[in-house]
Every structure is written in structure tokens, then in C-alpha cells.
């Protein structure tokens, strides 16, 4: 039985990830540090933290696997600096503490087109985050790169969801699979299952593979 550390458990994909982990028969304990309390669950440990000042000595940083759905939007942060601070710096700080504490496996929700050399700010931040996580030396690192996301409960809607829903429903037959909208459940499921298997090295799951992973698990 394993302990899973989940970062970003209150977000769009994070909520799906949390529920999947709590129901998973191979996971006996889930640690989900958040700013706001989560609903109680027998498997759940929910330390309340400030991501600006993470508790370095907390014993719960050591887990069998850590998964991150931490992220934000430019609309929420209102600046490129704020976006970078959350999407890159928060993830790196938490991953470093987990790795230093002995967590061997890490998984991240990234983005289709993530590239540290991209001329597009959003994709460059995602790429730099992937690059810097790769340098931390996890035994197994999974990077899931979804296209447009649809579904998932959250308090503030993202502008792209309506567009993604339209594409998913009306253009799926003509769009290349790589660009078709995927659900938050597909992303969370793929991330959790791959990190539980923990294949050695860096493992990238592209958006088109998410449809295949769900189909093969049914």
C-alpha cells in the first residue's frame, strides 16, 4: 500500500486526482497540502500550508509518489511574473522538498506544446517547469501534456473551457487527435496510473495518448 502526495488538490484536475487517489485500492494514505481545508476522509491527511513559505521539515513530504496539478491563469495572477511564480516556482519548491525527503516518483500536469524555447509565454513556462523538474533526479518522472480541458468542478471558470467544449463536441471528427479536447478525468487518471507504475526515467504522455489510456483501461 502506498502514500500519495497531491499538490494542487483544490484545482480543476487536482480535485479529480484527489478523488481517484482516495478511491484507489493501492493507495492507503493521501497527503494533500492546501490553503483551505478539504472535506475529511479516512485516507486523507490535509495539512494547511502557505505555498509562499512551505514547511521544509514536515514528515509528509516523504511519500511513495507525488503528483502535482498546481497551476493558475494569467487572469487570476494579473501578471506574467505572478503566473510564473505559481506555475514554475511553486512546483519546483514543492518537488525539491519531496525529492530531498526521499520521494522517488513525481508526476506533473503540464500542457500540450510545452517547450522551454517557445516564443509563447505560456508554453515556455510549462517547458521550463518540465526542464527544471527533470533535473531534480526523480527515479520516475511523468509529464502529462493535455490539450484543451473540459469538465471538472471549480470556483472560477477558465475562458478556454467553453471553446474546448465546443471543439470536443462539434469538431472532434475533423481535428487531429492531438488537438482534441480532453477531460479533467482523463488527465488525472493517466497521471495517477502512470506514477503508480513508476516507469524509470522521464515519461511524457501527450494529449492524443490520453484517449488511448482510458480506452485500454476499460
TL;DR of this structure?
40% of the residues lie in helices and 17% in strands. The chain is an alpha/beta fold and 218 residues long.
Tally of DSSP β-strands: 9
- Relative helix content: 40-55%
**How far apart are the first and last residues' alpha carbons, in Å?**
23 Å
Describe the sheet with the most strands: 7 strands, parallel
- Secondary-structure class: alpha/beta
Q: Which CATH top level class fits?
A: Alpha Beta
Report mean pLDDT, rounded to a whole number: 89
Q: Please give the domain count.
A: 1
The main sheet orders its strands as 3-2-1-4-5-6-9
Order of helices and strands: EHEEEHHEHEEHEHEH
What is the CATH architecture assignment?
3-Layer(aba) Sandwich
Tell me what you see in this structure.
There is one protein chain. With 218 residues, this protein is of the alpha/beta class. The chain contains seven helices and nine strands; from the N terminus they run E-H-E-E-E-H-H-E-H-E-E-H-E-H-E-H. The protein has one domain (2-217): NAD(P)-binding Rossmann-like Domain (Rossmann fold), CATH 3.40.50.720. It has helices at residues 12-23, 74-77, 80-100, 121-134, 159-170, 184-197, 207-217, and strands at 2-7, 27-31, 44-45, 65-68, 105-109, 140-145, 149-150, 182-183, 201-206. It has a seven-stranded parallel sheet with strand order 3-2-1-4-5-6-9, sandwiched between helices. It is globular.
Features:
7 helices, single chain, globular, Rossmann fold, 7-stranded parallel β-sheet, 218 residues, 9 strands, alpha/beta, two-stranded parallel ribbon
